[in-house]
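--- STAGE predict ---
source: upstream dedup step, 1 unique chain passed
mode: sequence only
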Amino acid sequence: MAGAADSHGLTFRQDYFDDPAAWAALAALLKDTFGIDVSIQDHFGGPDPTSMPFGYFDADGVCAANFSAFSMPMIIDGRLVRAAGFQSGAVRPQWRGKGLYRDLMNRAFGWCDEQGFELGILLTDKPALYEPYGFRVLPQHRFLGSAPPVATKPAGRARALSLDKAADIALIRHALQGRTPVSPVFAVAAQVEMFLLNSAFDAGIRLSLMEDWEAVVAWTSEGTTFELLDIAGTSIPPLSAILSALDQHPDHVRVCFPPGKLGWQATPEPSPSDISLMVRGNDANPLSGPVMLSPMAEF
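--- STAGE serialize ---
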């Protein structure tokens, strides 16, 4: 959807991902601003179909500014919450200070309110920028503990998955679309594109299929510490079965989501990060315990 040119000589556009040139222009804006290449989504099937971009373009088709909303249903304290995530917020240097970003935020937040989203969620290193719009910081906690004993019942071996293989990408997408949330306290209920993007952006993330559980496990390992990032599948394996299937024998485990389904005791500790998780709406207040948004869902 295209809009009329504004007083700065730019044209407002909304819902423009069906235009390949405009999608490429947004990818260029984000690469120039943040050094990330979201065009890799074309390899995974294209941009998120739930995404609603709001942008300004110049006469040559350059994306001068953008702010996008997308659907990210959440489970919060046992209830399915219709949540919207906000991402891809950027303005080219020559267009800053003209109120474009504020205008696009107001359009995106207003659109989400009209669509009936119950919760807004974003990640930022500038939380003060979003507080006037009703966002507040939600502290995040990782969960640490000693590794559990290896599962006594054989868990079956896991096999590595590769984003270079179309069959593996299809398998991962299927697992994400039919996933059971990793936690009833705070977890993504449905979102595919962020999981794939984060897997592609971080070469240290490993994806493994536990066939006996029909579950894709996202994990890393450093020294004697195993880090569990996310699980996408019809059921959630216990931590002991995960370690057994992956042939991992760590001393310590760090889990990046509330671990109540893992059959394992852990201690929450504040997550060290310059990025704040912010929420807008009543559904995340109060929460029954410490939470963390899986790094695989970050945006």
